[in-house]
Amino acid sequence: MNDLPILADLFNLYRIFYRKEPDTEEAERFLQERMHNNESVIFVAEENEKLIGFTQLYPQFSSTRMKRSWLLNDLYVLKEFRGRGVAKLLMDAAKQLANQTQSAGILLETEKSNAIGNRLYPSAGFAIYDQTNFYWWEAR
Questions:
Q1: Which architecture, in CATH terms, is 4-123?
Q2: What share of the chain is helix, strand, coil (3-state, %, to 5)?
Q3: Which partner for 57 in 31, 63, 70, 140 could form a disulfide, CB atoms 3.0-4.6 Å apart?
Q4: What is the rounded average pLDDT of the residues 59-80?
């Protein structure tokens, strides 16, 4: 919780990357609510006591596997720290969480246009799962 204001700044930059309107105040409220309700797990990376990246995972369940799984929904590293293995360290923390919770695994998605992510995820041991179609319904 002590990192919340700075984490909210990073979360805001993450959302801007995905073409969302900046809103640091709402970002902080959203993250605080997730933390307060134990609705996500957030790992942060820091260097010299400065937050430089984070990943946020949400629990979900697989009925067919009858186990918990995790949705790695957010991963962001400040531009000046990219290419130094920070994202892989954050994903390693996520994998450790998955193993510690005896989960079925971790699901993540990224835009097809995210060239960096689409190189990073396979190098971190994630495989494209093309056996199903994902659909989205937009609530009004």
A1: 3-Layer(aba) Sandwich (3.40)
A2: 40, 25, 40
A3: 70
A4: 96
